[in-house]
Amino acid sequence: MHELALAQGMLDIALEELARHNCTRLKLLRVEVGALSGVVCESLSFAFESLVKGTVHEKAVLDIVRIPLKLRCGSCQCEFEGEHGPGEFSACPQCGEVLGHTVLSGRQMQVTWLEGE
């Protein structure tokens, strides 16, 4: 389960940032998870909860924002949301092309916000 390693990495990032601002307790950690990231959000939540349990951060909230797959057609340049599979094989709604799309968003997994006290 690579979600445990991801949750640990996110928590490490958050704690480093909190320390830089003289905060001692994490309240909120917001992350964006793209449709193509390969992350199972439920597993990520479970891993995060397991890591903070019994610590001063136990009441911290993990807010997962799911980012849809956004593509640009290689033929007509139309931008559209792809399906939750290999985006390069989603049919363009404008011209019907199936191959050669560019992924604009949906691969990311990043910490975007945190709150502490």
UniProtKB/TrEMBL annotation:
GO terms for biological process: protein maturation. InterPro entries: Hydgase_Ni_incorp_HypA/HybF_CS, HypA/HybF. Keywords: Metal-binding, Nickel, Zinc. Zn(2+) binds at C73, C76, C92, C95. GO terms for molecular function: nickel cation binding; zinc ion binding. Ni(2+) binds at H2. PROSITE patterns: HYPA. PANTHER family: HYDROGENASE MATURATION FACTOR HYPA. Involved in the maturation of [NiFe] hydrogenases. Required for nickel insertion into the metal center of the hydrogenase. Belongs to the HypA/HybF family. This is Hydrogenase maturation factor HypA. The gene is hypA.
